[in-house]
Amino acid sequence: MDARFFAGGGSREGRVWRSSPLPSKESPIQQRSEQPLGRDRRLRRTREFAAVRQAGRSWVNELLVLRIAGNETGLSRVGFSISRRVGKAVIRNRVKRRLREIVRQRDIAGSLDVVITARVPAAQASYRELEWAVDQLLKRAGLPAPPKG
Questions:
Q1: What span, in angstroms and rounded, lies between the C-alpha atoms of 25 and 30?
Q2: Structural domain total, the chain
Q3: What is the CATH number of the domain that holds 57?
Q4: pTM above the 0.90 mark?
Q5: What is the 3-state secondary structure (H, E, C) of the chain?
Q6: Is residue 4 a part of any domain in this protein?
Q7: Cα–chain-centroid distance for residue 104?
Q8: Residue 71 sits in which domain range?
Q9: Residue 3 within any structural domain of the chain
Q10: What is the number of other CB atoms lying within 10 angstroms of the CB of residue 117?
Q11: Are strands 77-82 and 112-118 parallel, antiparallel or unpaired?
């Protein structure tokens, strides 16, 4: 057998020939130039989400709801809320991953807690559509956060 190999399983028709093996951990494909959203930059507790919902201000478009409230931590934190109405777990996780990456690329200045809630149409939205929705809401909220870099 040459440098190609089978990827996938199931029937022979479902298999895909790849011209090279999957990238190793040392591969530059998997390395990122920027850090992911660390634990200190995320909202994780129910009471933190509730505080933003109760005391924060909100902006809405057809794909997302943005809620912002001040905090005393000295840095901005972001949380994502994707309900089961958006779709099954695979869809919800895809939307959350996309939103997390979009927000990671933006520098939200100040000491703010931000909650981004996905609405049902977000399940069918492309990455670019979600990116546009986030940028639109941040601009309307007075937080011009262009992409880093």
A1: 7
A2: 1
A3: 3.30.230.10
A4: no
A5: CCCCEEECCCCHHHCEEECCCCCCCCCCCCCCCCCCCCHHHECCCHHHHHHHHHHCEEEECCCEEEEEEECCCCCCEEEEEECCCCCCHHHHHHHHHHHHHHHHCECCCCCEEEEEEECHHHHHCCHHHHHHHHHHHHHHCCCCCCECC
A6: no
A7: 8
A8: 39-140
A9: no
A10: 20
A11: parallel
The torsion angles phi and psi of 82, rounded to 5 degrees, stand at -125, 110
Q: Residue 30: left if φ>0, alpha if ψ -120 to 50, beta else—which one?
A: alpha
The per-residue pLDDT for 74 is 87
Q: CB 66: neighbour CB atoms within 10 A?
A: 22
Reading the chain (149 residues) residue by residue, the pLDDT tens digits are 444 544 555 555 555 544 444 444 443 333 344 667 788 899 999 999 999 999 999 999 999 999 999 999 888 999 999 999 999 999 999 999 999 999 999 888 889 999 999 999 999 999 999 999 999 999 999 986 556 55
Identify the CA nearest to 108 among candidates 81, 75, 130: 75
Place of tokens 């634990």: 39
Q: Is residue 31 in a domain?
A: no
**Structural domain contains residue 32:** no
